[in-house]
Amino acid sequence: xxxxxxxxxxxxxxxxxxxxxxxxxxxxxxxxxxxxxxxxxxxxxxxxxxxxxxxxxxxxxxxxxxxxxxxxxxxxxxxxxxxxxxxxxxxxxxxxxxxxxxxxxxxxxxxxxxxxxxxxxxxxxxxxxxxxxxxxxxxxxxxxxxxxxxxxxxxxxxxxxxxxxxxxxxxxxxxxxxxxxxxxxxxxxxxxxxxxxxxxxxxxxxxxxxxxxxxxxxxxxxxxxxxxxxxxxxxxxxxxxxxxxxxxxxxxxxxxxxxxxxxxxxxxxxxxxxxxxxxxxxxxxxxxxxxxxxxxxxxxxxxxxxxxxxxxxxxxxxxxxxxxxxxxxxxxxxxxxxxxxxxxxxxxxxxxxxxx
Amino acid sequence: xxxxxxxxxxxxxxxxxxxxxxxxxxxxxxxxxxxxxxxxxxxxxxxxxxxxxxxxxxxxxxxxxxxxxxxxxxxxxxxxxxxxxxxxxxxxxxxxxxxxxxxxxxxxxxxxxxxxxxxxxxxxxxxxxxxxxxxxxxxxxxxxxxxxxxxxxxxxxxxxxxxxxxxxxxxxxxxxxxxxxxxxxxxxxxxxxxxxxxxxxxxxxxxxxxxxxxxxxxxxxxxxxxxxxxxxxxxxxxxxxxxxxxxxxxxxxxxxxxxxxxxxxxxxxxxxxxxxxxxxxxxxxxxxxxxxxxxxxxxxxxxxxxxxxxxxxxxxxxxxxxxxxxxxxxxxxxxxxxxxxxxxxxxxxxxxxxxx
Lengths: 356, 356
What we know:
The structure is a homodimer of 356-residue chains. The first copy, chain A, is globular and about 65 Å long. The mean pLDDT of chain A is 89. Chain A is built from 13 helices and 12 strands. The relative contact order of chain A is 0.08. Chain A has 356 residues and is of the alpha/beta class. Chain A has 3 domains: 9-169, NAD(P)-binding Rossmann-like Domain (Rossmann fold), CATH 3.40.50; 174-275, 6-phosphogluconate dehydrogenase C-terminal fold (Orthogonal Bundle), CATH 1.10.3660.10; 287-355, ACT domain (Alpha-Beta Plaits), CATH 3.30.70.260. Chain A has helices spanning 16-27, 39-47, 72-82, 97-103, 149-161, 171-194, 201-204, 209-215, 222-230, 233-255, 259-275, 300-311, 340-349; strands at residues 9-12, 32-35, 52-53, 62-65, 88-91, 114-117, 138-142, 165-168, 287-295, 315-322, 328-336, 353-355. The first copy, chain A, starts with 8 loop residues before the first strand and ends with a strand. In chain A, strands 3-2-1-4-5 form a 5-stranded parallel beta sheet, with helices on both faces.
């Protein structure tokens, strides 16, 4: 591993993602240099053991640019300008075509390979960092036509050091992929959430788990997401036009009482949910839900999961639905189809109030 | 309770919701009469102890119509036609203006009060029924102008017997409320999910938790939801036009590079997420997420929640994010802000790999 990724690694931008990468490298025994425009971030990240501030004369084998989306292009170009002639540069921004354009004419562009780890947190800053942030997460590696094989190998080695799963995509493919799997869903979730502002409280009293799920991502920072989504304008606008056309079809079907048309649109959506990769990248597994009423105080979830564990049934997913009027939560346990009856019987024998 | 809700209660339609209501009534000592066009459903529900098949000459104090959306109007009218002169009729359909229109001219319309329990399951049929299906759930009671006070009281008594939380709304208000909190979110989730059909597998490899959350409800039965959404066409179409107009604004902002406009739309969505009622109907509580890597086999979740329980920190929500390439799941625990550090320290002391 250290053959493919010799030190030191320089991390530009000691926020959540940059500091987490630095911690993963240090854990693997790779020397890390840190730089940040914020002296406080630099001090905090160094204090966490993520590396030492970069000094004049330091030359990195790999520079990882982890700055906000709007500053990626200039920061990547600056890294190519100032680094050694064998230094490879990558970035971890969530769009890939725009930063590449910013460095496409650079004489050292062959030493740049963009990348994008699919991990984050609603928290930010170095204090939220962890060497395990990327464990098992997809991490896109986006080589452009002029990238050198050495550069690609070195970035792949970083992904391996971080415990992530490499996904090879061209920059343009990557941007189309995240428009579909992240940016357009985020925008639509935000539009749905927007309809809830100003609604009467007695109307919102009917809010169930469904709309909470749909709108959860819309709680993200508007400034950050306007940079992310705005930085991928071409792919997002193209897909958003398709969604707008289908929304017009849905509106016409609803307004005209065209049940068959409405059902066909909903069936198209159902097919889409089945296209999402399942556990461990395999096909989606058919699951059944088991609902359990759980008193809302510490220890009850532990008791529940002890009883679930004793039943031998593996849990695929869990949700907690706090109901609005009572000191009880409804826990939804998703289990493989065919295992629900066994789990229900096991939990009921322990006194839990359940239903499917 | 039995003064306000004398027996027998007749349940028309022994599916999931009807049979669950019947079981709740029987548990409260109220005699239940069952009817269903399916002899098999009737036999199953009776066998579960939900009541006895209605016989000629039986007269109910309350008829609960629990048939599919497209048959509600005729079934309510039939119940008013054939029931006793003191019999109150309600239904549990998910739209309320359309069935009311169907019986508005009926001479006994004063004995009808529509209602809507906010509970269900992806399962259907009497075998999935439970007397606890409605515990703690909102249940809208939708009196129309001509409804008698006796009728309203009797339906409210049913809601209480079922352990649900009554929410008083006019039929028109109810339909606007569910368009906003359920039908339009469902449609938009379905449109987002539809964009995933036919996407390249290597693009879908970047799928994260966000798009899974956004599209989860779109896995619902298209036939049922086309009836539900199509039956609320006026309220849905009105709100859907508002969403379409905002989508056009979003599209223009993205295509024109108008970052401020995009950020403003996203900020509007963020405000909407904060309008959703929190735990127990109170204000939304600020939570922090703690992520824990959990080996993917039975018993590990039990061990985790035992350690969580021992820490004394209450869990507000749980999600499991199965990552695509590894035999490990990431469990996200949401806890009150200010409790995350304590939980992290407690879990790390037990050997768990965590990050915020």
